[in-house]
Amino acid sequence: MAFSPNWWRAPVYFTVSVLLAFLAISTALRSLPKNEPLPTESTTAPIFLEASGALRRSGFNIIAALFQITPEIFLSSPHSTIFAIPDSSIANASQTSWLLKHLFQYHTSPLQLSMNDLLKKHQGSCFPTLLHRKNVAITRVDAKERVVEINHVLVSHPDIFLEGPLTIHGVLGPFTSIDPQYVEQVWDHIQSPICDSNLSLVSEVIDTKNVVEWTHIIRLLSSRGFVSFAIGLNSVLDRILEDKMNLSSVTVFAPPDFSFVASPSALLDKLVRFHILPRKFTYKELASLPANASLSTLIPDRDLEISGGVNVTQELIINGAKIVTPNIFLSKKFVVHEISHVFQLAELPKTSS
């Protein structure tokens, strides 16, 4: 009796499939909104069993197992296009359950995109995924040769499954590389292209090891009570990323009460940027600067001014606001200082969204 040289892969993939299914079930069930009931077996079983069979016939055994055992992980939009990752890419993974869930979400789009739909898109166009704020981009398209690459990864098995609200393609590898060094951090572990508001590619995948952890900053601000400022920063973050994507460090001055979150978007954008410096200044570094020294902000030609150095009461005053609690959060790439009140932006023109 002859054995395939790859016979040993079968038990390995089966074991990984069961493990991933268990992890996916636990994370998916915890994340579903409480006001949305779980899909019933009668509504999901036929289509997902068929999809699972199609995936298995094409060699995508691990994703096939997830479809059959826990389809809920892919059910967060009325329509879905799933890009199936090869078994070899997942079998070698050692990530945590939440990271694997994020990885699968990044390979699922809430749009329904057949191969013909993908071929109609132009090179450099982006489309959303189920992972918040994370897009993928068409980096190569050749309608004549029927070739599509997404994030420089070839769609190797187009139209594996096309039925109802579900479209599935197979790809040669994952759309993102995950550095194990950053797995335990809560910020941008999934590296993705930068796209503008028109879903056009602005920049290729950037190395997150060298940029500011904006998501981490927002979560830290929220956890310490700076909720209104965190909401404001989150609201304008896409604009900041469009023209300041390569910032390697920042200083954030966080006011405890930021009452401008309902302001017109253009005004909110300027006010938030006025509280951020494009480099990191610890309290000690700020205190060492002379009085009347200027600090460049994320608004061109709109600087902050140190109106007084550290005095006998150990207070540092910038634009009339005191640094109440210095170095609340400090990392290699950012520092956050609490200030007594919002910086006043002089001669701010009247704007509307």
UniProtKB/TrEMBL annotation:
Task: Return the protein name.
Answer: Fasciclin-like arabinogalactan protein 21
The organism is Theobroma cacao
Sorted UniProt keywords: Glycoprotein, Proteoglycan
SUPFAM superfamilies hit by this protein: FAS1 domain (SSF82153)
Its signal peptide is: none
Q: PROSITE patterns in the record, alphabetically?
A: FAS1
Gene3D superfamilies, per the entry: FAS1 domain
Q: Which residues form the FAS1 domain?
A: 198-343
Q: Which domain of life is it from?
A: Eukaryota
Enumerate the InterPro entries for this protein: FAS1_dom_sf, FAS1_domain, Fasciclin-like_AGP
Would you identify the family this protein belongs to, as annotated?
Answer: Belongs to the fasciclin-like AGP family.
